[in-house]
Amino acid sequence: MATQNTRTLARLMMAPSVVVLLIWMAVPLAMTLYYSFQNYNLLTPMNVSFAGFFNYQYFYTDPAFFQSIWNTLVLVVGVLAITVIGGTAIALLIDQPIFGQGIVRILVISPFFVMPPVAALIWKNMIMHPGYGVFADIAKFFGFQPIDWFAQFPLFSVIIIVAWQWLPFATLILLTALQSLDSEQREAAEMDGANFFNRFIYLTIPHLSRAVTVVILIQTIFLLGIYAEILVTTNGGPGYASTNLTFLIYRTARLGYDVGGGAAGGIIAVVLANIVAFFLMRAVGKNLDK
Amino acid sequence: MARKVTTGARIGWSIAAWVVALLIFFPILYAIITSLKTEQEAISGFSLIPSGTFENYITVQTQSNYFKPFMNSVILSLGSTVLALIIAIPAAWAMAFAPTKRTKDILMWMLSTKMMPSVAVLLPIFIIFRDLQLLDSRIGLTVMLTLINMPIVVWMLYTYFREIPGEILEAARMDGASLWKEIVYVLTPMAVPGIASTLLLNIILAWNEAFWTIQLTTTNAAPLTAFIASFSSPQGLFWAKLSAASTMAIAPILILGWFSQKQLVRGLTFGAVK
Known about the structure:
The structure holds two protein chains of two kinds. Chain A is mainly alpha-helical. The longest helix of chain A is centred in the first third of the chain and has 32 residues. Chain B is an all-alpha fold. In chain B, α1 crosses α12 and α5 runs antiparallel to α7. The longest helix of chain B has 31 residues. Chain B is globular and about 75 Å long. The chains are: A mainly alpha, B mainly alpha. At the A-B interface, α1, α3, α4, α5 and α6 of A face α1, α4, α5, α6 and α7 of B.
């Protein structure tokens, strides 16, 4: 079927998307790399000079950098732990024969469709607010002092909000995988006398492992870039307590007008994301072979 | 359901599932409830029963011209989706029906562009947009959203198109169908569901995209994400009004999302989980 004609046509049809994406990837990345070796501040755009590795050194020796890397790690791992464990539990629960399964499913996946600024503001003002939030009401009801979440546990609070947003994704993916589990296989295991616990360990977990991998990899890509939730709730503070790498680069670049420093941070972010992407591409690539 | 389940167990599981579901849904529900309260009620302790006023919805529109960011959201998400589809449909079509040795590499490469952290290219994009005077313009942001979501659009379409069996085409050709008839009567009806699903998912992603909309807009082209984010400090809008604005911002996409749960799995995992 693949004559010379169709091959040429196919190339023509692919060209626009390939060209557009190539430009979108190459041009800004090349510029970031270039800027990262320049002294360039938007406040004094006349004084641009070669900086060597100064910007990287500046980033590397900044205590905020290490805190932001640590915070990024805690944020990603924290959210992953909550969403994968919670998602598995909820997926198993919804997979049971329950009344109104369709509605339960709709309720559970809803947070995923809430735009990040709205999600953050709802949690900040209506749930976690030390004066008027629901958590404060509960604390007062039991006679406790309400917690000022964003002042006392800023990073943890951000984790809670982000985990709430991503729990539906994990649940949905795991539920889909769970429902593809062969019911005959399950029944055979039941016949052989495997109890619920054994079935879970030897049948369900191996079956879900692929879905869990995909959930972890895709979420990590998105979680490395968490921004709006921090901007709206803690603005990275107090101090740098809830600043992740994305937010630190944003601060350096946009609020500090430091193009060189921001670019150096950007290159570091690219390297980190690529390490994750490498594993994701392998997981997806394997699927493509089938 | 082949398994035998006692009614008792079924009720037990149901209660547990509903409690969990309502807990997860609660923040959204509470925002909707708060939007129907007066400002006084909104800050006077926990209550699930509002006095039932639509005042906030009206005030949000008259005081802060809510309609403008709402329309910006509509224009940006629809515009970028249509643009992405126009560019991606031919590409996905070619990859699905005329694959070469390199098709897989191209697909993987496209996906890899999605892995690039936005913040890493924030400065170049900002400077390019500034120099082209695209900052705070709908056109600039539409292009931006198109680029961000393009890989997902190509992938989704590709996985759908690949499921259209080639034999049907050959059969139609045997029956003497012209190329035009083939496209209109055979291919299009089979491709439409996949294109519709892709459209739906892309609208959701574009509507909720927050990083670029906040970075590249101020007032003119600001969609709802940027509009709502500007209320991070409680002055200006109060809680009941903020809840009304939030409810209106999430309602359309929430409903779209409910309808497209299945496609979501496929679209966001690039078909890696079935």
